[in-house]
Write a structure and sequence with these properties.
The chain is an all-alpha fold. Helices cover 72% and strands 1% of the residues.
Length: 402
């Protein structure tokens, strides 16, 4: 009997390790989606820079999170003998890998907002500071109960802030951090003439669409594998992710009037919004959450560029910042049993937690990029911006010429 129990325990630990490893690899693949979404959206002279930023940001994020960020968020360090690290089939290590891919999504999100005019080195410095300190501070507060905020919300309102897969912890944080960076960088040269928007057409719609599809597929690892164990897996999360994605697509198609940029960002808006409550909502609630997010993205992106004249290249603040906050609030609405959800969620806690994430990200974004702006400078020179980041930084263009 003891041998049978040991075998079952080994199987469970091995299965959980494999499960979360698959999730880590799926979210790692999403970074290719971030890369190609940016490559397809920016002008041809900035494509190499887009690709280079995403992979280098991931490397810096890994180092920052391994040595500092993960310890700040969860109090865990890996500075111990390898024989201790392989306990439970190395589940703790793979859990780090999984959560790292979330942390690394933050600079990948920011990258799209600051494209075409940000300096390479200072952006990597920003990545280090954000992934080592800013993001883990809020991540640990929400997902590890640091500082007693979650305990206070549960005591005061009957439920802690619920964010199953990171609508606020990851996406809103990334979007609002990017907002500070975009404001401090300023607009691209020539983007506005006599107060009117000048169109900078995407360089490659197929690459943009490819990036969107890679992100969509990977998102099912992002959401479903957030259960982190086989026991916690739920088909509800998968179907809710699907319905939100479809809702975002349909709304962006209708409101965006067939525009391919809106059409391929709409599903991403829906997926951003459903992360928080994907384990609680009824699929119809997830559909509504995604549809509202898709329409919100189209409206906010248009207003950002035309009315407010904020030059957010990929619209990462509307997509991740605003739709992420909507996701935190939507969890409080559609997670209620009265609307078909599983319940156990407080609207007051969702509002407070969402607002807190926005404030931490805003403060962090302006602090990090403000510090780098006055110390190193964060923007390319006018000449380098005109020539393009590819030639100015990497000394090579996306297309070779014989």
């Amino acid at each position: 009997m003891e041998n049978l129990n040991n075998a079952v325990e080994t199987l469970i630990h091995g299965s959980n390790t494999l499960f979360i490893l698959m999730g880590a690899v799926m979210v790692l693949a999403m970074h290719a989606g971030f890369a190609f979404l940016e490559v397809g959206t920016v002008r041809l002279k900035n494509q190499v820079n887009a690709l280079s930023k995403i992979i280098t940001d991931f490397a810096v994020s890994t180092l920052a999170y391994f040595f500092i960020g993960y310890w700040i968020a969860y109090g865990v360090t890996f500075m111990q003998p390898a024989e201790q690290l392989v306990a439970d089939h190395g589940y703790a290590l793979v859990k780090f890998f999984f959560l790292l891919t979330f942390a690394a999504a933050i600079p990948a999100i920011i990258s799209g907002g600051i494209a075409e005019r940000a300096r390479f080195g200072p952006q990597l410095c920003a990545t280090l500071l954000i992934v080592a300190f800013v993001y883990p501070f809020f991540e640990g507060m929400i997902w590890n109960g640091n500082f007693g905020v979650q305990a206070w919300l549960e005591h005061r309102f009957g439920a802690a802030f619920h964010d199953f897969a990171g609508s606020v912890v990851v996406h809103a944080m990334g979007g609002w951090l990017a907002f500070g960076a975009v404001i401090l960088l300023g607009r691209r040269n020539g983007r506005y003439r006599d107060g009117r928007l000048v169109a900078f057409a995407p360089s490659n719609i197929p690459f943009l669409a490819l990036g969107s599809w890679i992100l969509i597929v990977g998102w099912f690892g992002f959401n479903v594998m957030s259960a982190q164990t086989i026991e916690g897996i739920s088909g509800l999360v998968a179907v809710n992710s699907l319905m939100a994605m479809v809702g975002g697509t349909a709304a962006a198609w209708l409101v965006g009037r067939n525009d391919p940029g809106f059409l391929h960002n709409g599903p991403l808006a829906g997926l951003v919004a459903v992360c928080a409550g994907s384990d609680l909502m009824h699929p119809v609630g997830a559909l509504a959450t995604g549809a509202i997010a898709g329409a919100l993205f189209v409206w906010a992106f248009t207003a950002t560029q035309n009315r407010w004249k904020i030059d957010d290249v990929l619209g990462v603040w509307p997509l991740h910042g605003l739709c992420g906050i909507w996701g935190g609030i939507a969890c409080g609405i559609f997670g209620q049993q009265a609307l078909g959800g599983l319940g156990g969620v407080s609207m007051a806690s969702q509002l407070i937690g969402s607002a807190l994430g926005m404030l931490v990200a805003l403060a962090g974004g302006f602090a990090v990029y403000g510090l780098l702006k006055v110390s190193l400078g964060i923007r390319l020179s006018q000449e380098d911006e005109y020539n393009g980041a590819d030639l100015a930084i990497h000394r090579i263009g996306a297309l070779s010429h014989d």
